[in-house]
Specification:
Helix content is 20%, strand content 43%. With 336 residues, the protein is α+β, with helices and mostly antiparallel strands. The longest helix has 16 residues. The chain folds into three domains: 85 residues, no CATH class; 132 residues, no CATH class; 81 residues, no CATH class.
């Protein structure tokens, strides 16, 4: 008998002719047997018919918990696999809240009380009150022992209690103060759709995804808290970074292009190259979108064109892209 109580509901979009493997069911997993007052509402269960049966097995049910694949020839066997996986990852009567990933390995991060706790096998126990600081500590540890070359090589993943799926950050929020860790923004599915969440300190802020525009609502919430704490002096000192081309494409389609651009010159291979970054508007904000060296987007926000242009200049000067923060201007599109 399994510790978890599992029942199913149909995916109403499923049809038999959808292909080899499609989402057929959602498992509802009651975790009270593990001492956890939570029901996983929508663990995906996929189904496929085998072209060639393997002994008595003619169909395969597949699910994923925290990225781990579980496959069985019937639902009863799948339930045992789900239960066994939960036994292995539940600690302190808690599911992991996050996983940190180094190369092909990942380890859980728990939140049993006021502190987030994690341990690399054979290494020290890491404990702190917020995930942004914990990520820095873990990354610095792996860098010190030679497992990674820099912090970017360690990934942080969020485990959603709604569906037990892991989610990489949608983006991060960053100030120019290096003592303040980046704040990761995660997508998360729930019964109302997709949300964006920001773990900041000991609280988690959220906003509806809204095709990506929820990031601006979440940005304001984070900015208000950082202003209150004295971490920033102005509400738009934060940049949005590590936004993937795919996520940017969805967000860009909801912004209004302005008939102006932000223009500057940067040195590349000993010569100056003109860079033209597009300018957009959304509600009462202006947004400049810059592409970084690996193709992700960096967004700058402010209330008027002059201010957001200055934001870009300060950032580029800080990172050594331009020599003077004033070597940047906003020009009308007709100038090109």
């Amino acid at each position: 008998m399994t510790i978890a109580t599992i029942k199913y509901r149909k995916n109403m979009a499923y049809s038999e002719n959808q292909g080899e493997e499609k989402l057929r069911l959602f498992a509802e997993v009651d975790l009270s047997g593990f001492g956890i007052k939570n029901i996983v509402r929508a663990l995906p269960v996929y189904y496929r018919k085998l072209i060639k049966p393997v002994g008595p097995v003619r169909v395969v049910y597949t699910s994923y918990i925290a990225g781990l694949p579980l496959e069985a020839g019937n639902l009863t066997r799948l339930e045992w696999l789900i239960d066994d996986t939960l036994r292995k990852i539940i600690r302190f009567e808690h599911l992991p809240e996050y996983f940190f990933q180094v190369k092909d390995n990942a380890w859980p991060i728990y939140h049993p009380g006021s502190e987030l706790i994690s341990r690399y096998p054979g290494g020290p126990v890491f404990s702190t009150g917020d995930i942004a600081s914990l990520r820095v500590w873990l990354a610095d540890h792996f860098k010190a022992i030679g497992r990674i070359q820099n912090r970017r090589k360690m990934n942080l993943l969020y485990l959603s209690p709604y569906d037990l799926q892991i989610y990489a950050p949608f983006c991060v929020l960053r100030t120019l103060d290096e003592t303040i860790p980046d704040i990761p923004i995660f997508p998360m599915a729930d019964a109302d759709g997709v949300k964006l969440i920001a773990p900041i300190g000991r609280q988690t802020l959220s906003a509806n995804y809204a095709g990506g525009k929820g990031i601006f609502s979440l940005y304001r919430q984070v900015s208000d808290i950082m202003l209150f704490k004295g971490q920033i002096k102005e509400p738009y000192e934060i940049s949005i970074r590590k936004l993937s081309p795919t996520d940017w494409s969805k967000l860009e389609s909801q912004l209004k292009p302005e008939l102006r651009t932000v223009v500057y010159e940067r040195e590349l291979n000993g010569s100056l190259n003109k860079v033209i970054d597009p300018l957009y508007a959304t509600q009462d904000l202006y947004v400049v979108a810059r592409t970084n060296r690996i193709g992700n987007k960096v967004l700058y926000i402010d209330r008027d064109v002059q201010s957001v242009t200055q934001r870009v200049g300060l950032d580029l000067h800080y990172y050594g892209t331009i020599r003077d923060p004033h070597d940047i201007q906003s020009l009308p599109l007709m100038a090109f």
